[in-house]
Amino acid sequence: MRRVSCLRAEALRLCGALQEASCEGAETAWAELLAAAAERRHLDTLLALHHRALDRHSIHAMIHHTTQELQSYLGNVLNEILALRSFETTLHTGISAELERRDQLRELKAERISRGEYAFTSADEALDKEKRKIFQQFLANRKADLNVWARSYRGHVTTLILKLALHTEVSLQTLAFRLDYSDFYKRGDAKLHEPLTYQHKRLSEIGLHAARNKLIDHSRKK
Q1: Which residue of 6, 72, 91, 104 is surrounded by the most CB atoms within 10 Å?
Q2: How many Å apart are CA 87 and CA 139, to the nearest integer?
Q3: What are the residue boundaries of the Gamma tubulin complex component C-terminal domain, all occurrences included (predicted)?
Q4: Nearest one of 128, 121, 73 to 103, comparing CA atoms
């Protein structure tokens, strides 16, 4: 259950980042619209600003015509998250049923002892062992399912991050960086070392900026 909780937290963090980005990306455009409305600007100007705000919002929500390719990759990620929810339900139901069975067995033992009978017969013991064996197999199967899910989910997330990083919209490139700010997915997939990603661009810009400053300082010393 602890690993399930960790994976759920991982998925929720990603969903939170996506939701936050969809709002932040259009925040400036909405602010401009509100400011223009407060100044009682011309209706055509307000309509243009409103259209721009909606356009920016749709881009960051990945429902814009320029983000159609991203929609399928995002859909894959969201489908995996829904699959995890279904998995948790199955796991919880199975564990709850086993715990309930064991509670009932303890109550049965106590009741028999109170009547002066044997708490456990050989038939009861054999049945209990069989039930426990079935439950252990259930847990083993769910563990295998979870391993498959984790690989599939992280594969889809990695693909989404890569596609975001290579998108022409700079704000979506920054979103890719935010989704993997700790390089967690990057460490697990060589594709994210692609030199066109936002992070590489930023590092290149930082390097160029440092070199430019160094050249300026050198020129001044002369």
Answers
A1: 91
A2: 12
A3: 3-185
A4: 128
Cβ contacts of 25 within 8 Å, gap of 6 or more: 56, 57, 59, 60, 171, 175
Say if residues 26 and 52 touch (Cβ distance below 8 Å): no
The two three-digit tokens of residue 87, written as one number: 């998995």
Residue 86 predicted with pLDDT over 70 = yes
- Give the residue among 155, 207, 198 at the shortest CA–CA distance from 176: 198
Q: Name the H helices within the chain.
A: 2-24, 27-38, 43-60, 68-114, 122-165, 170-179, 184-188, 198-221
Q: Is 8 exposed, middle or buried (0-12, 13-18, 19+ CB in 10 A)?
A: middle
pLDDT at 189: 57
117: confidence class by pLDDT, cuts 50, 70, 90 = confident
Determine which of 37-41, 60-64, 110-114 has the lowest per-residue pLDDT on average.
60-64
Whether residue 34 is predicted with pLDDT greater than 80 in this model: the reply is yes
Q: Which two tokens stand for residue 15?
A: 């969903």
